[in-house]
Each structure stands twice: as structure tokens, then as C-alpha cells.
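Exercise: predict the fold of this chain.
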Amino acid sequence: MVEPITGLDPDRIRANLERVREIAGPEVEILAATKYVLLDQMGALAEGGVSLVGENRLQDLEAKRERWGDAFSWDFIGNLQSRKVKRIVPLVRLIHSVASDSALEQLGRQAPPETEVLVEVNVAGEESKAGVTPAELGSFIERSPVRVVGLMTMPPFSEDPEASRPHFARLAGLAAELGLRRLSMGTSQDWRVAVEEGSTILRLGKSLYA
């Protein structure tokens, strides 16, 4: 079980942000994944220069958004349950994890047409993970009642960052074919490879906080 993150140091966060930005460049967004960051630790992120955060759970998103409000831009990066779409949409600028027809149905009912989302793609074909298959992606996007502006993927975990490269390259190729500009890919262990393959949003945790 992952322990909650405590004792965050704003100076260390700022230094880590600068290090990532030096490599990634100013055009790549750095999202702080805050699933394990406690509510009272969010201020250290703001003090350390974090401007964009991503939450995995609706309950935490609601609590942190209520407390910290305009201190950050907020994205939803967790598994998107269709019954929670109505509550998530007003709280975030972008949902990274649309991957089911039931989610599309609820977005059609609950979200303004200008709502922006990313489609989660299961590039590696892992049975244990959510995501649209590459073969189904085009038709899935055509069925979307809101604006699909990009793609997201989570490749199989590996200690070797290079193992993620073919999956990131495949996602970038799919986005190019479909004329989509945003690519949410790359976490703490493989973000450098993700940048090289065209990521526009990095979802970072440990590499920002440690």
C-alpha cells in the first residue's frame, strides 16, 4: 500500500520543476499527480510553483478543489466512472481518461458540448487496464458528444524507461493520424522518453516530490 505523501518541501518541488522544464521545454505541461498528496500538503505544491494538478478520485478532487480552488488548474486523471461524470465535469478543465461508451453517454447528458476530454488508449492491449483499442479509436471519437482534443495512455510498468518508447510512439502516431494535438503520456519513471516521443502533458508524482 502506498503511503500518503507528507512533509513536502516547496524549495525542492521548485527545483524539480525547473529540472523537468529544462529538459521538456516550455511547451510541455507538467501536471502534478496528487492522488497520494494530503489535503493540507497542497499548499506546498502551490508555493513550489505547481500550477496544474491531476486527481484520480472524485471525493479527493471535490475536497481539494473546495479548499484550494483557484490556486491550481485541475484535471481528472483517474478511472472515469460514468455515474460520476456529472460531478467531475464542472470541477476540471480536462478529463484524461474517457474510455467507455457509458462515459460518452453521460458526457452527452451532463456536459456542455465544448467540454474537452482525452481518450484513454490501451496501446499495449493489457487486459487489466482500461482504454479504447487502437482499432476502435476512430469510431469511438466519432461517437463522442464533446470535444476530443487528444489521447492518453499508461504503458505497462517497467523499471526500464525505454520499454515505454514503442507505446508512446504508437500513441503519437495515432494522434497524428487523427489530427489531435494533446498527448498525456509519461510519468516519473519514463517522462524523458515521453518528451522525446511528443508528449504535451507529463503526469508526475515522485519526480516532483522527492
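Check your answer against the key: The two ends are 18 Å apart (CA to CA).
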